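Q: Given only this backbone (379 positions), what sequence would you predict?
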C-alpha cells in the first residue's frame, strides 16, 4: 500500500463507461466486489507498485447535467446491471466525486454530440486556446484541492466524427500558431490541456485525441505519456483472438462479417453515419492487421433501443480449408458494453500512472493489447 493519493479525471465522466469505472473504484475500495475482470489484478502484476482503488479520487468533464448516481441508477434500471446493495453502498463516494465534475467543451465535437448537451456553459469556448485554458484550470484545481500527487486523464466521451489532420498538426509550433482558431476536435483539446500540464492521457475512444505528431511532441516535451485508441473490449477482442487461429492453421479467411446491435447512448451517437464511420474504421481494420492480407470484411453497427447496454455481435467467418473446401464459423457475442469497458479504463489508469512514475515518456506502445487501433503500433 502506498500513501499516494491519485486522481482519475474522466472526459465524458457520467456516461456509461465513465460511471461504471467510477462505481467500480468505489465498490473495490469498499470491499463490495472482487477484482474479476481487472487485468492488473492478475498474479502477473503482483509486486508492481500500482495504485490501489482506495488511493483514487475521481472527477471529470461532462456536457450533460447527469451525475454518477443518476447514470448508475439508469443503467441498473434499464440494463439490469449492478447489485442493489453495491449501489447503495457506493452512494457516498459517488456523490462526493460528482461534485468534482465540471462543464466540458463542445468545440469541435460535431452536431450529433452537441444535441446531447444540456449544460449551458458547454458552448462557452470559441477558440481552441480558450477551451484548453479552461480545461487546464479545471485539472489544476482538481489536483490542488484534493492534494493529489498525480492525475491521469481518460477520454471516455462520445465518438466524434472523423477528423483529417493536416500540415498544422505535424508540429507543435505550427499547432500553437493556430490555437486562436479551431484546429482541433474536442478530444484533442482535452489531450492538449492534459499533456501541457504533464499529465498522462488515455484515449479509450476512436476520436483523434493525442494521435497526431504535434501532440506526441507535446507529450515528450512535458515528460508525460499517451495511449489509445478505442478500447478493445468485446467483439473486436474476440476477433483478434480468433484471427490468429485461422492464420496459424493456414486457413484462408475469405470474408468476415460482423453485425453489431445495441441500444445505449453511445449507440445513439453512432447512429449518425458520420460518427459511426470513426468506429467502423477501428473495428474493421483488425483482421487484415493480424493475417497480413485483406479478406472482404463488413462491419455494421445498428442502434436498437430496446437492447440498452447489451450488445449482440454476430460474426460470420467464411474461410477456405484443404483442397479448396469452403467452411463457415459463426460466433454470437453478447456482452454488456459498460461492464466490459469500465475495468479496462481502471487498468489503463493504473498502468499510465505507474509508467509516469517510472519516467516513461511518449506513446506507451506496450499497452497496445488494450486497444482496437493501437497508437504508435501497426500490429
Ligand atoms: P455514453 O454516451 O454513455 O457516454 C459518453 C459521455 O460523454 C456522455 O455522458 C456525454 O455527455 C459525454 N460527452 C460527449 N462529448 C463530450 C465532450 N466534448 N466533453 C465532455 N463530455 C462529453 O457512451 P459510453 O458507452 O460510455 O462510451 C464512451 C466512449 O467509449 C465512446 O466513444 C465509445 O465508443 C467508447 N468505447 C466504449 C466501449 C464499450 O462500451 N465497451 C468500448 C470501446 C470504446
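A: Predicted residues:
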Amino acid at each position: 500500500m502506498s500513501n499516494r493519493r491519485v486522481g482519475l479525471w474522466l472526459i465524458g465522466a457520467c456516461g456509461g463507461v465513465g460511471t461504471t469505472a467510477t462505481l467500480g473504484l468505489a465498490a473495490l475500495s469498499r470491499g463490495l466486489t472482487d477484482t474479476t475482470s481487472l487485468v492488473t489484478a492478475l498474479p502477473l502484476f503482483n509486486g508492481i507498485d500500482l495504485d490501489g482503488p482506495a488511493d483514487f479520487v475521481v472527477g471529470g468533464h461532462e456536457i450533460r447535467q447527469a451525475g454518477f448516481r443518476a447514470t448508475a441508477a439508469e443503467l441498473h434500471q434499464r440494463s439490469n446491471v449492478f447489485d442493489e446493495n453495491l449501489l447503495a453502498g457506493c452512494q457516498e463516494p459517488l456523490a462526493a466525486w460528482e461534485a468534482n465534475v465540471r462543464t466540458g467543451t463542445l468545440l469541435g465535437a460535431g452536431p450529433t454530440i452537441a444535441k446531447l448537451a444540456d449544460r449551458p456553459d458547454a458552448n462557452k469556448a470559441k477558440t481552441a486556446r480558450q477551451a484548453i485554458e479552461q480545461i487546464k484550470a479545471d485539472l489544476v484545481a482538481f489536483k490542488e484541492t484534493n492534494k493529489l500527487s498525480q492525475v491521469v486523464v481518460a477520454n471516455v466521451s462520445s465518438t466524434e466524427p472523423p477528423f483529417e489532420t493536416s500540415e498544422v498538426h505535424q508540429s507543435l509550433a505550427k499547432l500553437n500558431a493556430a490555437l486562436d482558431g479551431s484546429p482541433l476536435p474536442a478530444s484533442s483539446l482535452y489531450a492538449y490541456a492534459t499533456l501541457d500540464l504533464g499529465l498522462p492521457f488515455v484515449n479509450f475512444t476512436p476520436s483523434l485525441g493525442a494521435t497526431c505528431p504535434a501532440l506526441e511532441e507535446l507529450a515528450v516535451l512535458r515528460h508525460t505519456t499517451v495511449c489509445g485508441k478505442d478500447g478493445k473490449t468485446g467483439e473486436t477482442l474476440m476477433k483478434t483472438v480468433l484471427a490468429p487461429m485461422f492464420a496459424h492453421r493456414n486457413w484462408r479467411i475469405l470474408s468476415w462479417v460482423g453485425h453489431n446491435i445495441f441500444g445505449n447512448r453511445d449507440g445513439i451517437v453512432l447512429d449518425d453515419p458520420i460518427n459511426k464511420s470513426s468506429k467502423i474504421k477501428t473495428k474493421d481494420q483488425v483482421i487484415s492487421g493480424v493475417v497480413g492480407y485483406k479478406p472482404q470484411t463488413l462491419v455494421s453497427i445498428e442502434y436498437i433501443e430496446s437492447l440498452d447496454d447489451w450488445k449482440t455481435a454476430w460474426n460470420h467467418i467464411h474461410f477456405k480449408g484443404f483442397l479448396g473446401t469452403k467452411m463457415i464459423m459463426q460466433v454470437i457475442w453478447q456482452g454488456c458494453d459498460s461492464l466490459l469497458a469500465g475495468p479496462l479504463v481502471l487498468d489503463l489508469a493504473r498502468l499510465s500512472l505507474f509508467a509516469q512514475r517510472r519516467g516513461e515518456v511518449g506513446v506507451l506502445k506496450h499497452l497496445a493489447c488494450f486497444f482496437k487501433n493501437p497508437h504508435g503500433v501497426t500490429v
